[in-house]
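[job 4417] fold queue: 2 targets
>>> target A
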Amino acid sequence: MSELKNKVVWITGASSGIGQALAFAMVKEGAKLVLSSRREQELNEVAKKCSCEVLILPLDLSDQSKFNNLAKQVVEHFGSIDVLINNGGISQRSEAAQTSLEVDRKLMEVNYFGAAALTKAVLPIMQKQKSGHLVAISSLSGKFGFFLRSAYSASKFALVGFYESLRLEEEKNNIKVSIVFPGFVHTNISQNALSGDGQKHAKLDNNQKGGISSEKCARDIIRGIKKDKHEIISGGSEKWGILVNRLFPNLFYRILRKKSGE
């Protein structure tokens, strides 16, 4: 998919952060937008800044019962779904030993099952079209574990396995699949992350504070989509950890254990 002009692009988690930046960047590409998150008021504020046709569809990724109906609404409004960007999700900041199983389940429900369910709602539409592009926002934590992110990392690893399998299965239907691995991005993800007891972490991590902008991440993602890349990696110097881990795993672990999770 070399061009996004007039394509219908559905973005979850579009009320802030990377999702909001993706919406604004897609406007410049000439796309038509479907914007989703739990916060309808914030979505409307984003839509006001988008000089294109926008459909607002509030959704909660932990409540998947309405996803098939929402997908039908998109098709009724626009006639197709060309790109689905599963960006919505939640993070965690707590050691595994101090994290309740309810928090582990919450992250899997939102980050993994929410994305998988919405993808399965959209998939029959793309299969009928014999075209489409599915984009999953994983994380560098979906490549290797990191301090204070056991549940988050598990959910992001799960996304990788699901979408890599889906890519192979849907090639016959001309459906593309891209997995995005952002590093540290300056968003509110750490403030909204869950602590071990399920309360909000409510702190801006130094890693996030020093991360790339959400606009830079959005540009990297769009560039990767247009090039049909299987993996899209975005971040600062931390993104080179993927290569170091692959080539020198022992060295990588020695480096990683000296880092901080905050």
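>>> target B
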Amino acid sequence: MTVLTSRDNPIIKTVISLQRKRGRQKHRLFLAEGPHLLEEALRSSFKVRNVLVKEGASCSGPLGELVKTHGVPVYQVSARLFPALTETQTPQDVLAVVEQPGEAGSFPSVGPDFCALLLHQIQDPGNLGTIMRTAWAAGVTNLFITPGTVDPYGGKVVRSSQGGIFNLHLYFQTLEAILEWARAHGVKVWVGDPRANKLYFEQDLTGPTLFLLGNEARGFEWTKLDQDWGIAGVRIPVPGGAESLNVSISAAILIYEALRQRLTGTGREG
């Protein structure tokens, strides 16, 4: 197998460009580092363009067979050059180049058990990736992404998602378009609000539900919107006195309360 040694190699140049949002947008590709993410990508509907392994390492065993089954080209990269392709301080020896999926469509269909997340201007890649991982675990497959939110195909987001990125449908829309769609389709929008009268577990979350999660620093001031979108606030208690919860923790609390109510049939009337 030929070993790639030069930064001027077209494959190497493309991979390095994918470390930046501009490069990912230009090529419609992104990086997935490590055997676990490669396996999740191969088992999903995403297309793996190629695999790069560090010189001296190999892509063998069940994972190697999976790569062969999908007909994915594998390239070795010199040990000197390989670290330049990764974004972690202690890189793993396997790196996949994955095609970004086509648009999932304008909006998903809505059934009686519909539950989704609206991520509005989330800035921290680790938070977004953790939210994706939690949504995947809970069976929430639809995520709405508004302008100003960190790129979901960035390296830290993909790594933090632990494979969630490959098991979700992402919809890129403006906040107003999403809220208009939700109102038209009977989807109740809930937003965390420390001033809300009712706690999150006192509300009925068993119907079509959309949880709106706002910017880490500013939150989301839904009461200042230019029109009434039918949004309701729910409060997560913090009796210990902390000012607020991390947005990914808040997402997990709300998602799993909705799941609990649906599994047990114990939703309450709001």
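[job 4417] complete. Note on B: The chain has a mean pLDDT of 91.
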